């Protein structure tokens, strides 16, 4: 490598480390210790495997080993039972695959794991992140409905806080984020996709959209802001009210996704898109992203507690619980009938 390109890389690395990352700073103040505090949960404890992950520092470590690194070697960060995370040591691009059968629904444990892994990849200096799914035909079915149905209030609050946190981390991420949408992506699944900088969706009988009204619930302001920022105000008005689930072709037509390709081409398309984005100086790219996204992030950052209170008071209403119960029963019925 020439001296000129070395010093440019150094300057970029320095700029990255100096960049005052408002979201992360803010979050680390608000929610320190997410990675180290055992989360007692309904079904399990989330910590052991995450702490094992945090002993590794693949991006930094491996960049020092550049001379001996094989081109495109994949370094697995291991798996917890919910996520499969690996890092390409030559590019610093991480791939995070959701693997929570049957439908990658976002429970408290799952969201906690996602937050911890995002923090880890960010602090390891990863430059890019591909979010995908290991489950065929499913990106994510959105929020785990049983978290909201007949809930324990303390857990419900933690669930919503962790969802907020995940959104804040991902929407403002310093990494280049690309969603590889190889399956259905309703509600929270669509939200996660929209947080990414670029969305590649597989063609076929799949759907994506914010369908909350179909469950009788109302997407909070930060969900709708994210949609407005993605597809524009008018399209968002219709989509939110109708709970519209778009086909891949419809989604690309309104800009909800950026590319639709055959399923077998999703990985290659994501890789070539990432390669293009990686050519842009990282600090300039990230500051440009924040210029557009920070006002939306700030709106939630300034009202997090109020948003949790609103959510809890809304979701625990008898009428809303009734709607959720009916929706869950219909899902189960449909699943049984298959
Ligand atoms: C103020 C509140 C704001 C809330 C904001 C966000 C809301 C959300 O994100 S709510 C979640 C909304 N999600 C959905 O409406 C999606 C529902 N699921 C589906 O449409 C389908 O499951 C899907 C198209 C994703 C996949 O279809 P299939 O592959 O055919 O799977 P099945 O439908 O047979 O489902 C298998 C199994 O999973 C259960 N399931 C599905 N989605 C959820 C979910 N979101 N939460 C919990 N459980 C879910 C489904 O009932 C089946 O269970 P079993 O009957 O036990 O097999």
Any key phrases for this structure?
alpha/beta; 2-enoyl-CoA Hydratase, Chain A, domain 1; 7-stranded mixed sheet; 3-stranded parallel sheet; disordered N terminus; binds ligand LRBWVUCK
Sheet-strand content, in percent, reads: 5-15%
Percent helix: 40-55%
Give the names of the bound compounds.
ligand LRBWVUCK
**Sequence of strands across the biggest β-sheet:** 3-4-5-6-8-10-12
- The CATH architecture: Alpha-Beta Complex
Overall mean confidence score, pLDDT: 83
Count the strands?
12
Assigned CATH class = Alpha Beta
**Poorly predicted sequence stretches spanning 5 or more consecutive residues:** 1-75
Classify the secondary structure makeup into a structural class. alpha/beta
Largest sheet: 7 strands, mixed
User: And the CATH topology?
Assistant: 2-enoyl-CoA Hydratase, Chain A, domain 1
């Amino acid at each position: 490598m020439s001296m000129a390109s070395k010093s440019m890389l150094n300057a970029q690395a320095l700029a990255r480390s100096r960049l005052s990352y408002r979201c992360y700073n803010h979050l680390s103040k608000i929610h320190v210790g997410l990675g180290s505090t055992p989360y007692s949960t309904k079904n399990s404890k989330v910590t052991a495997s995450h702490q094992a992950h945090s002993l590794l520092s693949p991006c930094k470590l491996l960049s020092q080993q550049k001379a001996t690194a094989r081109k495109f070697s994949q370094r697995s960060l291991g798996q917890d039972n919910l996520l499969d995370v690996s890092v390409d040591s030559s590019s610093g691009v991480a791939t995070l695959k959701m693997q929570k059968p049957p439908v990658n629904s976002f429970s408290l444990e799952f969201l906690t794991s996602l937050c911890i892994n995002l923090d880890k990849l960010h602090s390891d200096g990863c430059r890019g992140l591909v979010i995908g799914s290991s489950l065929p035909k499913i990106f994510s079915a959105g929020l785990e409905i049983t978290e909201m149905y007949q809930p324990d209030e303390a857990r419900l609050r933690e669930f919503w806080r962790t969802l907020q946190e995940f959104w804040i981390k991902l929407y403002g991420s310093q990494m280049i984020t690309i969603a590889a949408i190889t399956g259905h992506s309703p509600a929270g699944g669509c939200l996660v996709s929209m947080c990414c900088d670029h969305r590649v969706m597989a063609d076929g009988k799949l759907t994506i959209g914010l369908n909350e009204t179909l469950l009788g619930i109302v997407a909070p302001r930060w969900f709708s802001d994210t949609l407005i920022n993605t597809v524009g105000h008018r399209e968002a008005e219709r989509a939110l009210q109708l709970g519209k689930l778009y086909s891949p072709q419809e989604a690309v037509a309104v800009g909800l996704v950026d590319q639709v390709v055959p399923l077998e081409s999703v990985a290659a398309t994501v890789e070539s898109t990432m390669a293009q984005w990686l050519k842009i100086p990282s600090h300039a790219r990230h500051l440009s992203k924040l210029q557009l996204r920070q006002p939306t992030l700030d709106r939630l950052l300034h009202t997090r507690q109020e948003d949790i209170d609103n959510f809890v008071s809304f979701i625990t209403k008898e009428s809303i619980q009734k709607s959720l119960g009916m929706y869950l029963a219909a899902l189960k019925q449909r699943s049984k009938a298959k």
